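TA notes, week 10

Several of you asked for a full example with nothing omitted. So below is the full record: structure tokens for the whole chain, then the designed sequence directly under it. When grading your own attempts, check the secondary structure regions first.
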């Protein structure tokens, strides 16, 4: 019926515009759910442990979005600087915890952060020893940060560097005074090898808001261009 009201050329232009809109929506969704990893709620940084904003610290409800960051190449790390807690590592871990974890797990790790009430299952109480999905040993906490926990709001923090994940692991353990259990020597050796033998590349990060702005501008420019010159 629509061909009675529109010429073939007008119908073609209408379909072309519709496909552009659909393409824009698909690309925006791709950026939102794939390109920008681990967007989360943002907590306030501890005043005594300032840290530069890191990827993944902002969430969908954070109007500031997360900052653009350039590609970073990180060389292999001496395991001795990360496998046991030290003041610098703990300061970094506490700042990262405040930015990435406190909103859900609470400032003291009791699972009572401001976002906890809206989550099911509830965030882990790091001060209690029972019920940890992957275990409480250092290698277990590191694995949880690397892989996340399926079926929960605990997503993977693999977008953080290995050193940052280890700093967070030490901080998470420090929040509970219970016995976390003896680590498996083979697991610790594997972690040490991971740090010593392989560096890593942290890719460029593009804020969602910026990506959407660019796509919108490109779409607007396309619509403004005469059909014969596209």
């Amino acid at each position: 019926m629509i061909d009675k009201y529109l010429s073939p050329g007008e119908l073609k232009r209408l379909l072309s515009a519709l496909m552009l809109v659909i393409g824009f929506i698909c690309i925006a969704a791709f950026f939102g759910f794939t390109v920008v990893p681990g967007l989360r709620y943002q907590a306030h940084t501890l005043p005594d442990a300032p840290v530069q904003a890191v990827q993944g610290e902002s969430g969908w409800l954070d109007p500031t979005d997360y900052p653009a960051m350039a590609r970073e190449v990180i060389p292999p790390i001496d395991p001795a600087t990360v496998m046991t807690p030290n003041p610098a590592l703990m300061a970094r871990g506490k700042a990262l915890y405040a930015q990435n974890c406190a909103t859900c797990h609470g400032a003291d790790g009791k699972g009572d952060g401001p976002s906890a009430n809206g989550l099911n299952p509830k965030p882990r109480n790091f001060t209690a020893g029972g019920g940890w999905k992957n275990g409480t040993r250092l290698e277990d906490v590191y694995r949880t940060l690397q892989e996340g926990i399926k079926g929960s709001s605990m997503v993977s923090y693999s977008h953080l560097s290995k050193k940052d994940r280890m700093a967070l692991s030490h901080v998470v353990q420090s929040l509970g005074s219970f016995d976390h259990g003896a680590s498996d020597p083979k697991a610790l050796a594997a972690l040490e090898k991971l740090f010593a033998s392989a560096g890593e590349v942290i890719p460029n990060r593009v804020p969602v808001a910026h990506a959407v702005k660019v796509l919108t501008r490109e779409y607007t420019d396309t619509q403004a261009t005469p059909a014969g010159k596209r």
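Confidence is low (pLDDT under 50) at residues 35-64. Use that as a sanity check on your answer.
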